[in-house]
Amino acid sequence: MSTVMAMKAALYLRVSTDKQELENQLEPLKKFAKGRGLKVVQVYRDMATGKNSDQNAFQQILKDAYQHKFDAIVV
Q1: Are 19 and 29 in contact (CB under 8 A)?
Q2: Are 72 and 39 in contact (CB under 8 A)?
Q3: Beta strand pairing call for 39-47 and 8-15
Q4: What is the β-pairing status of strands 39-47 and 72-74?
Q5: pTM of the model
Q6: What is the reported pLDDT for 5?
Q7: b or e along 28-59 (b: 16 or more beta carbons within 10 Å of the residue's beta carbon)?
């Protein structure tokens, strides 16, 4: 009998201002991932404008993706 492993996923949450709530995105993204059989292994959070790509979590998720720490990113 073969065992099928769930694909590993990272979640990326981002808001532009401190007047917005990052956590409002967390549960819907978890639900989305679960509904597709993805196992959430990491959550990345940024509170920064989307004008440029110098957000810390965004840069880290790219590095971790390059290192194959997960199979998919849910945004």
Answers
A1: no
A2: no
A3: parallel
A4: unpaired
A5: 0.86
A6: 78
A7: ebbeebeeeebebebbbbbbbeeeeeebebbe
Domain 8-74 has CATH 3.40.440.10: no
Count the alpha carbons within 13 Å of 16 in the hemisphere toward its beta carbon.
4
Reported as a single tens digit per residue, the pLDDT across 23-46 is 999 999 999 999 999 999 999 999
| Domain parsing of the chain, residue ranges | 8-74
Residues 18, 66: Cα–Cα separation, whole Å: 30
Q: What is the DSSP string of 1-37?
A: ---PPPPEEEEEEEESSTTS-THHHHHHHHHHHHHTT
